[in-house]
Amino acid sequence: MIVPFVIVSLVLSILYFILIGAFTFGWLRQPLIRASVDIEQHKKFSILIPFRNEENNLSVLLNSLSALSYPEDCYELILVNDQSRDNSVAIINEFMNNSPLQLSLINSEGGKKQAITKGLKQAKNDYILSVDADCKIPVNILHAYNTLLQKKDYKLVGGPVSFYGSTNFFGQMLELEFMSLVASGAGSILIHKPIMLNAANMLIKTTVAREAEEEVYRQKVSSGDDIFLLHYIVKNYGTKAVSFLKAKEAIVETKVPASISEWLWQRLRWTSKARYYEINFTSITALIILAFNVLILASIPLLFIHSALQFIGVYLLLFKIIVDYMILLPSANFFAKKHLLIFVPLLNVIYPFYIVIIGIGGLLFTIGWKK
Fold first, then answer.
1. What long-range pairs does 26-29 form, CB within 8 A, spacing at least 24?
2. Total domain count for the chain?
3. Is 145 helix (H, G, I), strand (E, B) or coil?
4. Are 240 and 154 members of one domain?
5. Between 217 and 139, where is the model more confident?
6. I want to staple 212 with a disulfide (CB 3.0 to 4.6 A). Which of 38, 216, 282, 290 is the partner?
7. How far apart are CA 145 and CA 45, in angstroms?
8. pLDDT single digits (tens) 60-71
């Protein structure tokens, strides 16, 4: 038992180190982009925001949209209502009556993907910026994307997303975990091995989004438009058609989940899409991370079976903490969240339990977009 377990531990440790090391390399090799407001050529954007029952979040979203710094004739706002049962529509109508912005409110039913499809038909501009309704949009985000697009006409660009509003220990733990996901996804894109991005801040070339409608937005999966769109573009245009906007002026903030149940629902929704992935780098990455965390869990009972295995369990946990610091240190500096690094050891103790439960739950259950 000892020798096979040691061999498996070494192999998975090496794979995990290579994986996180590669993501860290990708993150570090990309220079910081600074949004330029002096560029004469302005790309035109359609900001697309599907929503359902967001009355508690719309004031923050709409206020941030009102503050956007970009020529008003170079962007439009498209909000798509997916069967809201609260006061969301009334709030938006009031905003429209008092705002000079180009804003369209359209109705849809059938889930997030159907709402996005409706928005795509409405969009008039060359690029679509996908944003979630529970977000706070930074004032210079369009200038930041415009700066990046002067260099190359990308088909898909992921943007930085950060949790805000944590007032307790639980919320700060979630901030740290989410930051690690965003940085890993960004790093993977920047080494041309993209595994994920986030629809809360994602730029798509409009013609490509419409072209992908049948394959991406007509699937039976209720959400997952970001990952399936990523896979579509990589398959049809290659990894160099995808980039990440590493700009502090582009950090979209979204509220930290208010409760454990809300957090679990969100994570189960994300992982439930994995069963529909093709075998690719995304699924291989997920398998390595899951296997390494299963190994850490498996080492716990072995501590009581054989004294020689006690060292391995401690080694695996310490190794994971050290490796995770590689990517968390530079990303915490970018997001101005270095104070969260104190929670890394504790998060690594909890994470193996969480990732295994979420991984299994996501494969067993199908989770809808919104409750």
1. 26/186, 26/187, 26/188, 26/189, 26/190, 26/191, 26/193, 27/183, 27/186, 27/187, 27/190, 27/246, 27/327, 27/330, 27/331, 28/330, 29/190, 29/191
2. 2
3. helix
4. yes
5. 139
6. 216
7. 10
8. 999 999 999 999
List phi, psi (to 5°) of 192. 65, 35
Evaluate whether residue 7 is within a structural domain.
Answer: yes
Amino acid letter at 187? G
Average pLDDT, the chain: 88
Cβ neighbours for 113, distance < 8 A, ≥ 6 positions apart? 216, 217, 218, 219, 221, 222, 223, 225
Looking at the fold, whether 246 and 311 belong to one and the same domain comes out as no
Asked if residues 168 and 211 have their Cβ atoms less than 8 Å apart, the reply is: no
pTM of the model: 0.90
184 with 195: CB under 8 angstroms?
yes
pLDDT tens per residue, range 159-214: 999 998 887 888 899 999 999 999 999 999 999 999 999 999 999 999 999 999 88
Which residue, 259, 288, 314, sits at the end of a domain?
259
- Residue type, position 341, single letter: L
Expressed as residue numbers, the domain containing 108 is 32-259
